[in-house]
């Protein structure tokens, strides 16, 4: 038979509750929420037992007693009187057993509602007990959507009330009150609760669907932005770097002396490596929109590539010292990539703003965090006629701060009293690799 869908808390609400109250209260609330219906059934079964026993044993409204009372009022042979007394004793035994049966059917009222309704009909017809009828009509109306069967059970309950009132010779007012309190009121309340539960379930489902659609729209916007960035980088940066590599290659071939050719070759090699890294970045940006396989990407640089990076700067004339502390081990990919980019940007800044100064790169592997520090000595005096170092706009450090924030770390950068400079990043470790 059709049944109303239950209402549950979604994942988004659970995350908000954990953020507001912590993990312990949320686990307790989740445990109660998942078992609330079963606990309510047990509570209702225990509380309904004394009321069922009271109404079943109460005088007046007992159909068996009403049928056997005239027989006891007249003189009849002893065997017949014993039979009547036996019938009343059986009725008394049933009056004690049936409340237990009602409590048991209350435990399965959401899965076997017909058991509760049948027991309620028997108690109402033969004992005049309205409590199971009220609970059964309310449960059926609030949890199930089969209105035809609900109407049939309601008609049977009304007929039972009418039959019991006719045999017990109850007045019209008593019968009307019995119908209103025992049938109409629980039926109306159950229909209202069931409709409200169904409405809340539909609203919650609609809210969850809208939330999923918002996430999909956000993902589409992110993918579109990544594609746009990849296109801009390809059209602007890649074109300019390609021109630089081509001109450096031409200068290397037509250089008037060996020193110029060596410098042009270094420029050409560096430019080609920059193009390779740019293609990797473009592949990462297009991977989510073009699908895997259409934009192959090389592995992103990690801490094991620091020796190669330091070697490249040493070959360019920078005095770089690499120091490692702690216990080197594989770390989460995001932490290693971020640490590599910090060292790369700090070495680039040192090469631009303090050419000729010694640089130290220190990597400390902690148990809970990774610390990366790049410090350079004061800039040597500039030789007469040498070009002034370029002034940076601060975009490199701004980009590093964004990377560190995404990795939930901290970044500090500033000068030493003697004129040197240090860039230091601390990245938390959430796993072992």
UniProtKB/TrEMBL annotation:
Its EC number is 2.7.13.3. The keyword Protein biosynthesis does not apply. It catalyses: ATP + protein L-histidine = ADP + protein N-phospho-L-histidine. GO terms for molecular function: ATP binding; phosphorelay sensor kinase activity; protein dimerization activity. GO terms for cellular component: membrane. Residues 336-430 form the Histidine kinase/HSP90-like ATPase domain. Residues 381-390 have a biased composition (Pro residues). Residues 375-395 are annotated as: Disordered. Residues 225-289 form the Signal transduction histidine kinase subgroup 3 dimerisation and phosphoacceptor domain. It holds the Pfam family HisKA_3. InterPro entries: HATPase_C_sf, HATPase_dom, Sensor_HK_TwoCompSys, Sig_transdc_His_kin_sub3_dim/P. The chain crosses the membrane at residues 39-60, 80-108, 115-138, 150-167, 174-194. Keywords: ATP-binding, Coiled coil, Kinase, Membrane, Nucleotide-binding, Phosphoprotein, Transferase, Transmembrane, Transmembrane helix, Two-component regulatory system. SUPFAM superfamilies: ATPase domain of HSP90 chaperone/DNA topoisomerase II/histidine kinase. It comes from the Bacteria. Residues 200-227 form a coiled coil. It is an enzyme of class 2 (transferase). The keyword Transferase applies. PANTHER family: NITRATE/NITRITE SENSOR PROTEIN NARX-RELATED, NITRATE_NITRITE SENSOR PROTEIN NARQ. This is histidine kinase. It comes from Haloactinospora alba.
């Amino acid at each position: 038979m059709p049944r109303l869908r239950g209402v549950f808390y979604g994942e988004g609400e659970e995350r908000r509750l954990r953020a507001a109250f912590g993990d312990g209260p949320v686990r307790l609330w989740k445990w109660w929420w998942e078992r609330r219906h079963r606990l309510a059934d047990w509570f209702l079964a225990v509380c309904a037992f004394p009321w069922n026993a009271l109404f079943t044993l109460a005088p007046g409204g007992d159909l068996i007693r009403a049928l056997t009372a005239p027989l006891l009022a007249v003189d009849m042979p002893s065997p017949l009187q014993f039979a009547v007394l036996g019938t009343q004793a059986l009725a008394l035994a049933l009056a004690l057993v049936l409340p237990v049966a009602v409590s048991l059917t209350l435990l399965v009222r959401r899965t076997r509602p017909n058991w509760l309704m049948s027991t309620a009909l028997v108690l109402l017809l033969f004992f005049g007990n309205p409590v199971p009828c009220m609970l059964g009509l309310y449960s059926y109306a609030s949890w199930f959507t089969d209105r035809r069967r609900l109407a049939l059970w309601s008609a049977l309950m009304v007929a039972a009330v009418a039959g019991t009132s006719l045999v017990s010779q109850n007045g019209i007012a008593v019968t009307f009150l019995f119908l209103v309190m025992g049938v109409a009121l629980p039926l109306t309340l159950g229909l209202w609760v069931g409709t409200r539960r169904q409405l809340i379930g539909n609203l919650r489902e609609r809210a969850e669907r809208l939330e999923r659609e918002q996430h999909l729209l956000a993902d589409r916007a992110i993918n579109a932005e990544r594609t746009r960035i990849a296109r801009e980088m390809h059209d602007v940066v890649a074109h300019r770097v390609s021109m630089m590599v081509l001109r450096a290659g031409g200068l290397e071939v037509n250089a008037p002396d060996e020193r110029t050719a060596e410098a042009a070759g270094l420029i050409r090699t560096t430019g080609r490596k920059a193009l390779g890294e740019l293609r990797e970045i473009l592949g990462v940006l297009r991977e989510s929109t073009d699908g895997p396989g259409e934009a192959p990407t090389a592995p992103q640089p990690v801490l094991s590539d620091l020796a190669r990076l330091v070697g490249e700067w040493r070959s360019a004339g920078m005095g770089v010292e690499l120091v490692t502390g702690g216990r080197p081990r594989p770390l989460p990919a995001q932490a290693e990539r971020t640490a590599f980019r910090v060292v790369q940007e700090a070495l680039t800044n040192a090469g631009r703003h303090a050419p000729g100064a010694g640089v130290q790169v220190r990597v400390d592997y902690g148990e809970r965090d990774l610390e990366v520090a790049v410090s350079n000595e004061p800039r040597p005096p500039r030789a007469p006629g040498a070009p002034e170092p370029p002034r940076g706009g601060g975009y490199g450090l701004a980009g590093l701060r964004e990377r560190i924030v995404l990795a939930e770390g901290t970044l500090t950068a500033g000068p030493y009293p003697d004129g040197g400079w240090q860039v230091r990043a601390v990245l938390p470790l959430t796993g072992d690799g």
